[in-house]
Amino acid sequence: MSILTLQSLSMGFEDRVLFQNVNLGLEAGEKLALVGANGCGKTTLLRLITGELAPQSGQVVLGKHVRLGYTSQLAETHGTNNVETHGSASPDIKNTASPDITSASLENTVYDEALLVFAPVLAMERELERLTEDLHHSHSDALLHRQAELREAFERGGGLTCRAKTRSLLLGLGFDETMQALPCSALSGGQNVKLRLGRLLLSGADLLLLDEPTNHLDLQAMAWLESYLADYPGAVVMVSHDRWFLDKVASRTAELHHGRLTLYKGGYSAAIKQKQAQAELDRRHYDNQMTEIKRIEGIIEQQKRFGQERNFVTIASKQKQIDRLKADLAAPDANLKELRFHFPPVPETGNEVLRLRALAMAFGEKKLFHDVTGLIEKGERAFLLGPNGCGKTTLLKILRRLLKPAEGYFAWGANVRVGYYDQELGSVSSSKTILDEVWDSFKLMSHNEVRSALGMFLFSGEEVFKAVNTLSGGERARIALLKLLLSGANVLLLDEPTNHLDIPAREALEAALSQFGGTMLVVSHDRYFISKLATKIYALRPDGLAPCGASYEEFLELSATDAKRGAAPQVQKDKPLNEYQQKKLDAAEARRQRAAVARCEAEIARLEAEMSRLHEELSLPEVAADYEKILQLSAELEECEKNLEGKYEEWEGLPHA
Hints:
Number of helices: 21
Helix content: 40-55%
Radius of gyration: 32 Å
């Protein structure tokens, strides 16, 4: 049974057309993934289905009595509707939208707020309690009939299981018993979004429209949501950049591309294979048709040279044949501008890149972790996994010396230059133009070099003069990635680098990082991204780091095995040291640090002396008249300044007694 039909749907705005002639039929129980580059119109299409927007042409047809539920990825503020109910429900119980979290309900607990989805059932429960009390005093047939009628409706509406379902769903989304007892006013923006998602899932809507539903979920909650949606009896349309999620849930994939909607069987990975196969068939057909057209054009040219009357008849016939071929000929789609980049070669580090020893961190009474010990070696792509709030981002900030650990220490290896990607994009939030944001960070680059680099990251023409603080999250993420690429870092600390990126940009980042010649430590919830890149996986736990294999698949196998055994992965521990060994180790570490500082300071002194020599040589009269010599010395001076700036940064990152 079709519950949703899109007929010849077209939509656009003043500056551009989003899509045209979109047709789609959705059956009950289907799970449809809606994918496409940022800005192609996915969210707009969802808003057309809800009726929030009206199409320029075509129509949206919902099945009779279909209840529609919608959650927006931007619903982080109080008062945003999650569920819109279309059509009529049973006269006994109407599973309508739950009330919004407004100022009047902020003091509700998380559990009570979620339970409000079942408000009609709960009202029946209260009436049943009153009827039971009344029947103690009067056994009228009317009261007995109303009680039987109401009890049947109560059970049919899920009254016997609504509390258990609510508690179970909240646990699945990461709200433990303690969090369920918190008032809604204590929730963060991300937790509020999760609560709204939970109420939507409890609503029993026939059609769910989910816009980035895995945002703010950790790995465990994502896995739970996949299982829940796979068994959900209603239909689901989901917009998501989480390719692993789409592969697990979707039975069909619809791609918005170049203003058209194309349907494929299966999840994202299956759709990509079908798309590539179809593109190859289209290319071959186009090449064959073009070859045939050129052959016929050759015949026409030959006939023209003969110049007889019968030749002109042949020419006219052949030209009609060409016209028919061209009328049916469609050139393969020209590619949209796509993000394509690679990291330049970087200097090699020592084999031991980062050593962690007994690191601990706490904020007041809240202890995040302790005894974090481990080793990252050259060339590894290590991923740090764990539930939200376990301290992954905090650990990266400690390694960047943005926070000081409560206990323990860490040591970077030889010739390490660290680049950091901040998931909050705090480094690109200024009011500067895009051009100045990059150029001010890399002053030695020429104007043309900066413009060329920006073009590689899809900023061209007048776009480079936009203010950074007016850009979308995806645009600012591209700037952050560009600055990371230009930094020349040989060790990358990446905190949720795929956040804000659409699927094409994520794939470009994966391709670039897979060829990166340095070392990486990455925090990510993007399982597809982890699966593509990881060579080592750690789980961050309150009592330390637990090695969890060399791939995401191995991590899943180990997790499943440990879950069956009821055990957690073993935290990595060094053999305990006696007091003498510990003092010896600490003394060796102190000597190594002093030696690193001394080497760095000696190199700074050498570079400063070299710069003084170059400045003196440039000021000589005989050099002032030699254009080629000036160019040579200027290039040497620029290289010297660049090296000196790098050494200053290295010196600042070293521990000083």
